[in-house]
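cron nightly-structures :: item 1 of 1
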Amino acid sequence: MTTPSARPAHAAPPPNSLVPEEGWHCGHYFYRFCRDRLPGVGGRDEFIAALNPTGDEMPQRLQGYIISGHKADFAIMVMDPNPLTIDAVHQAIMSGPMGAAIEPTWSFVSMSEVSEYVPSIDTFRENMIREGAALGSPELEARVKAYADRLPMMNHQRLSPEFPNWPAACFYPMNKSRVVGANWFTTPFSHRKELMAEHARSGIAFAGRVSQVITVGVGLDDWEWMVTLWARNPEYLKEIVYRMRFDEASAMYAEFGPFYTGYKATPEEILAHCRIQ
């Protein structure tokens, strides 16, 4: 989570706005069809339109999923600078004729950010030297330059991520532990940073197979973070989560909420898969 910067005491207050100074709002919404209420309800066209908003109601990012298991039938993930643009998609689903036969089962409200654990260019250089790179060597300078070139793009993806056109995804909330002997928030920052660097290296091993975005629910929802993983194949979801469970940041300090597994789908595909006529 980003450490907030202090404003000078004499500075003018910021303007009132729903739009973050950095990052976007994010909404994960999960639903179930109530089949006993469906006969005679109709509303197929309105449901499809709700998941294909246009004009001023169209958010920057929107993706729908068929959810596997009994926790939900379908889900949407939405991101936009304006939280009301996100919520308008939910309201459109529920206010249509089919909304009378749709039950919201869970949601998560969060925001994107650049984590305080993302290494600066100087920190990246120090890490390379600590791992054995020779000070002033061409190899070190090449790696530092490559990181410096990638960093703006990576931060852009953290703040306003593109949703990959990959078939599988999973979503789960998490907290950091506060138990005696494993309290993340009383652990020195330097150690937390080392643990998160190890965690990041585990994730990098899945580049090209898994993409992730972590959004922050602190102060906004019941859990502290929301993890979204997209994968080219569902087996990679299993592999990356299992691998990262062994990292100390996860093994000692992570608490996980419910997992939702989804498969990218259009509104028409959601209705067809769920046998909604």
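cron nightly-structures :: done
The radius of gyration is 21 Å.
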